[in-house]
Design a protein that fits this description.
55% helix; single chain; eight-stranded mixed beta sheet; 14% strand; 298 residues; alpha+beta; 12 helices; 434 Repressor (Amino-terminal Domain); Endonuclease, Chain A; 2 domains; 8 strands
Length: 298
């Protein structure tokens, strides 16, 4: 493996870490299973990999193909922890982010959103009895999300976020919840919190922070969320089946990460079409004011 670029080794190490976290394995446990030292595993996750045998052993233990760990083709991630950890890694030094997430890109949510999201995730895990795997993944997932937001706020890369008007309408009408049998009082409180969140979006539309562009799409949007990250002329596409909004889902789905030109071009075309037909600036803010008047809690 001596002819592989050093940056490629670093990227392999990042993928190893994401998949380990997604399996809920501590470095100590995985190192024990692989019969290597914890220090050796840490070195591997830093990209210090000298033997293909070790990579093959890690691949088998994590249930991730060697092609996925090497980044050859499309990466497939079957849990939210691995997926959002990879997003965090890819966003770390990104210069530009283009995203379509519901009800809004997590990176642009207010500081109060995390508490509301945590409540909804825990409710969702208990809808039909306890789901130990999902419950165990909530804390590490929230930690990853907070690290994403902290890095974004520190670096402030350019971000273009497409938001669905229909999603925001449901957000205002129902509040952010993880189940449909919440008490009326709880629903009212959630609606008050979502109202504040939508007003936060309205403020950004009117203030137009440097580097932040938000548009409101009124036409139907794709069922899956996606994000395009650009750095030094290179682009990476992430496609997410996971939801951090209404009826959150961090349990089922297969996220995809790819640099394939065709996939990037097709999703850039979707983003361009939605962007061109969306409401912007003061017009978008006025539209959200109208949604607040119609669907926001009084």
């Amino acid at each position: 493996m001596a002819d592989v670029e050093p940056n490629t080794f670093i990227e392999i190490g990042e993928r190893l870490r994401a998949h380990r976290m997604g399996r809920g394995l501590s470095p100590e446990v995985l190192a024990s299973r692989l019969q290597i030292s914890r220090a050796a595993l840490y070195r591997a996750e830093r990209g210090e990999i000298s033997k293909i045998d070790m990579l093959l052993a890690i691949s088998r233990e994590l249930g991730a193909s060697l092609a996925t760990l090497l980044g050859a083709g499309t990466e497939y991630l079957d849990n939210a922890v691995s997926f959002f950890e990879r997003m965090r890694q890819l966003e770390h030094d990104a210069d530009q982010i283009i995203g379509l997430f519901s009800p809004v890109s997590y990176l642009l949510t207010s500081p109060n959103y995390d508490e509301m999201l945590e409540q909804a995730l825990r409710e969702s895990a208990l809808v039909s009895g306890e789901h130990p795997e999902m419950l165990a993944s909530i804390d590490p997932l929230l930690a990853i999300l907070k690290r994403r937001k902290a890095r974004f706020e520190l670096r402030k890369p350019l971000i273009a976020s497409i938001i669905s008007s229909a999603d925001l309408e449901r957000f205002l009408r129902d509040g952010l919840g993880g189940r449909h049998d919440l008490s009326p009082d709880v629903v009212q409180e959630r609606r008050r919190k979502t109202l504040r969140e939508v007003r936060y979006i309205v403020a950004m539309l009117r203030e137009q922070p440097i580097g932040v562009q938000i548009v409101i799409a009124r036409e139907p949007i794709p069922a899956t969320s996606f994000q395009i990250m650009r750095q030094n002329g290179n682009s990476t596409l992430t496609i997410s089946p996971f939801r951090l909004g209404q009826d959150p889902n961090i349990q089922l789905g297969v996220g995809q990460i790819t640099t394939a030109p065709e996939a990037l071009e097709l999703h850039e075309q979707i983003a361009h079409r939605l962007w061109e037909g969306s409401l912007k600036g003061e017009e978008a803010a006025n539209h959200l004011d109208g949604l607040i008047d119609r669907f926001g809690i009084k």
